Amino acid sequence: MKTIVYIDGYNLYYGLLRKSKLKWLDVVQLFEVHVLDKKVELVEVRYYTAPVLGRMSDDPGSTQRQRQYLQALRNLHPQRLVIIEGKIQASKPYLRLAKSIPELPELQIVQVLDFNEKKTDVNLASDLITGAWTGSYEQAVICSNDSDLEGALAAIKSHHPGLRIGIVAPISGESHRHISGDLTQYADWQKVLSVAHIARSQLPDKILNSKLQKPAAWY
Q: Are 80 and 28 in contact (CB under 8 A)?
């Protein structure tokens, strides 16, 4: 069964990786060894993300670490991994305070820095639909818990009911969140990612035939 995996990188990061030391993740190994049935043919892993902006992070090294990580994935899996980048859009909206500040009772509206990821959902949904209509896969596995993908899954199941859809939710077992019902209603199977599987799917500390290595902050 020809299978393509579609990973929402930021959903995976904020769902499981942000507060862990497991960010040096080999996403191809994770799905091929620990998630997918051994009988399927993993054709491609498509990883959707956006470059981190230095000013959106408390740690200016985040930008460089992300670049190192993406390049390590490209070097290790040049044939089966595709990285699709969107962008982070910065804005400075004025927002009303949800709760007044006792020391400044007259302050009702503040200006904040806001950063929004753009294009990831659209790119992922577009590729899912394109793959269904062009026969690129017999099974699509979506690593996301974002209900914005509901429309794409509904269209695929409506027009291509023979295609299989799997939902792999990047949420911790103790999380108060659950797998989105908006997605699972169109899924043939579903799974919650295990932290143990992620721990066993780390990239080599040093990538062979390159100068790339695991960032010191991720040990």
A: yes
H helix count then E strand count, the chain: 7, 10
CA atoms within 13 A on the CB side of 69: 24
CB 63 within 8 A of CB 52: yes
Residue found under tokens 């699509």: 140
Distances 44 to 29, 47, 195, 209 between C-alpha atoms, Å: 12, 10, 23, 23
By C-alpha distance, which of 219, 212, 216, 217 is closest to 67? 212
Q: Give CA–CA dist 42/189, Å, rounded.
A: 17
Q: Is the pLDDT of residue 123 over 80?
A: yes
Tell me what pLDDT residue 125 has.
97
Q: How many CB atoms lie within 10 A of CB 197?
A: 15
Closest-CA residue to 177 (of 69, 8, 15): 15
Residue 161 contacts residue 185 (beta carbons within 8 Å): no
Taking alpha carbons only, the member of 21, 40, 4 closest to residue 202 is: 21
| Location of structure tokens 């006792």 | 102
110 strand-pairing partners = 95
User: What is the number of other CB atoms lying within 10 angstroms of the CB of residue 163?
Assistant: 16
Q: Is the pLDDT of residue 173 over 70?
A: no
Q: Give the CA radius of gyration of the chain.
A: 19
How much is the average pLDDT of 132-155? 97
Residue 65 CA to residue 79 CA, distance in Å, equals: 23
